[in-house]
Amino acid sequence: MQFTGFEPQDFDVFTIDGLQPRMDALIANLRVKLTQLGVDCTPLLSELTGEEMFAHVAKHARRKTNPPHDSWVAWSKNKKGYKMYPHFQIGAWNTHAFIQFGIIYESPMKGVFAEQMLVHLDEIKQTLPSHYLWYPDHMNPQGMVMSEMEQADYDRIAHRLANQKNGEVMIGTTIPRDEAIQLSPEAFLARATEVFQTLAPLYQLAFSTVSV
């Protein structure tokens, strides 16, 4: 195990003003932990998906003025990148850490997942804990709590996925920063393992076809 656990400075990087100062702190602190998690969780995700998975730590290389508000490590089956594929993530905002599965706007598999999501929605709602969150916009840290969602919410997410260029969805859970800091490395990895095991069936839906 490489992960050494989260510390306050891993979350505090997002309070630093200015792109370069924030990036310098992010690279020195949080990115180290994300890289460690990338190594530790790759074998688990490869086993859960039945495919060789690769870790991709966010570099935020395209940013020229605005500093990042969050950062993450993502796993996909492609060695070169993750944005085109269904993927898993662990990351952090200033207020919390997150563990998720999702498909963002660049993936050509959005339509398949949208269709499968609705076909298997009853099963999904029975399988995922009611406190899990759905994010129709991965840049917004405020997700919709499953226990408060109605059919119209799922329909809206599926419609955007299938029909709009910017349609996307992330699904998972959060850990408040103070709790994440207090968790031992072993305890955090155990939590991540549990969440990834719960989310793994969603990954398979993205590579499925609707059965008649």
TrEMBL record:
Annotated Gene3D superfamilies: Protein of unknown function DUF1054
InterPro entries on file: UPF0637, UPF0637_domain_sf
Tree of life domain: Bacteria
Family recorded in the similarity comment: Belongs to the UPF0637 family.
Protein name: UPF0637 protein C7459_10678
Organism: Tumebacillus permanentifrigoris
